[in-house]
Design goal:
16 helices; 4% strand; mainly alpha; disordered N terminus
Length: 450
């Protein structure tokens, strides 16, 4: 039976029922429409970067510490070094065939730098799919349909999605894998095949995503604590075994790739991403996290342009970016902070209720399926905060791993404690993000065009 749920929009302090949530088939059509719309939008931005900002791709780490050149090779060139598969275990096997095919098509059309554009367009497709799956995730989390559409717009127009869905990097695919993991866990009867497939995909893009796979499973798998741990351990083990087998296949097809399960020293670039910790450094990192996790990932602050180097330009955001807002970004942050405070109040009630939810082996109700996912999203966000307190040069580089969780949790919290005019506020936030992040794209193109 198709679930129908009344959504509520506050009016004069009194909730009033709107239309029921659309049938499942309509939900998937709507999600597909979001995916196509944003894939086209991100593809346009990707083409704009490739055509108008050629020097953005000349050297590594020029924009937000992103390795655009190396990821162009991993995504769209079968030859070349693929040593990043130690941290991104199956990225070449899963993504390079599609990217190489697209590169060949573009080269046949005499497109300059076809590999670069092919890799960027592949990221655009992944970014669009992420928005579509995010729309499904909101339905799994019991967010009313009318508001879920607006939340999907806010997520799709975020700084994270706009930038990393239009530049060759891993984070569009990593975000897609994470959203898939939580969306599948939120179904009433998730199939073992779907759970394993999404787990392998998410881990195959980035190794730390195995934590999300484990958290989602341990909070949803079985009624008792020990049984949950047993099933979670079995699930994670199967994911790793399947990934290891696919890694061997990847090694045979791409000889320059690395087997992720063979112990080796951590690459120097990752070692350098661990700062020397001290009380002052930890305080600075806390300020940076407070800026980037809830705010910068949605609306861009001022762009920090470092042109003091002799042969290159680097762009990033200030670590404590709350001190460097643009006018549009600052207005967005104020409105967004208001929603976050209200959402935090609603999440408190959701978290308390989740402790009493039985997770039986049979079919779960929609509410029973959604509450453990909310707790898992909270736990994943806490893990990301703890990890990046001690790891990462440019925090914005990793924002694809938390932006979806921040927006999803805000949506859930506001379902519990709605504000009058929430729908209008969300549309306003989306418009402000379009202005702030569109200006960021223009600044980056102007910086790297010559």
């Amino acid at each position: 039976m198709v679930r129908e749920e009344l959504s509520f929009e506050p009016s004069a302090g009194v909730p009033s029922p709107l239309l029921p949530v659309p049938p499942r088939r309509n939900l998937y059509r709507e999600a597909a429409a979001f995916a196509i719309l944003f894939a086209l939008a991100y593809g346009a931005v990707a083409t704009y970067f490739c055509a108008r900002a050629p020097h953005l791709f000349v050297e590594l780490d020029q924009a937000f510490d992103a390795d655009l050149g190396l990821w162009t090779i991993d995504l769209a060139r079968p030859q070349g070094p693929h040593s990043r598969t130690r941290i991104h275990p199956l990225s070449v096997l899963m993504l390079n065939p599609a990217g190489s095919t697209l590169r060949a098509i573009l080269r046949a059309g005499h497109v300059d730098f076809a590999g670069r554009l092919a890799a960027a367009l592949l990221c655009a497709a992944a970014g669009g799919l992420t928005v579509g799956v995010f729309r499904v995730l909101l339905d799994r989390l019991e967010v009313g349909a009318s508001r879920a559409r607006r939340w999907a717009l806010v997520f799709g127009l975020s700084t994270t999605q706009v930038i990393f869905s239009s530049l060759p990097e891993s984070y569009a695919f990593s975000a897609l894998g994470l959203v898939l993991v939580f969306a599948v866990e939120g179904t009433r009867r998730p199939s073992r095949a779907a759970l394993l497939a999404t787990g392998v995909f998410a881990f195959g893009i980035t190794v730390t995503n195995i934590v999300a796979v484990a958290l989602a499973r341990v909070l949803s798998a079985a009624p008792s604590g020990w049984e949950r741990l047993r099933r979670c351990a079995l699930h994670v083990s199967l994911v790793l075994v399947i990934a290891a087998a696919l890694s061997v296949v990847q090694g045979a097809l791409y000889p320059t790739s690395v087997l992720f399960f063979v112990p080796q020293r951590l690459p120097a670039a990752y070692v350098a991403s661990f700062p020397a910790l001290s009380p002052s450094v930890l305080l600075e990192r806390l300020g940076a996290l407070a800026s980037h996790v809830p705010f910068v990932s949605l609306a861009a602050p001022r762009l920090l342009i470092d042109a003091t180097l002799t042969s290159r330009i680097e762009v990033d955001f200030e670590p404590f970016a709350l001190a460097t807002p643009t006018l549009v970004g600052g207005i967005h942050w104020l409105l967004w902070a208001t929603l976050l405070v209200r959402a935090a109040m609603g999440l408190g009630a959701t978290f308390a209720a989740a402790r009493d939810v039985p997770a039986g082996a049979g079919q779960r109700s929609a509410r029973e399926a959604s509450r453990p996912v909310v707790v898992a999203l909270m736990a994943w966000l806490l893990f990301e905060l703890a990890l990046h307190l001690v790891f990462g040069v440019s925090l914005f580089l990793y924002s694809g791993h938390w932006t979806f969780a921040v927006v999803a949790l805000a949506a859930v919290g506001l379902e519990k404690r709605p504000l009058r005019g929430t729908g209008l506020i969300l549309l306003t936030l989306a418009a402000l993000q379009l202005a702030a992040n569109g200006n960021l794209v223009r600044q980056m193109v102007a910086t790297f065009s010559h």
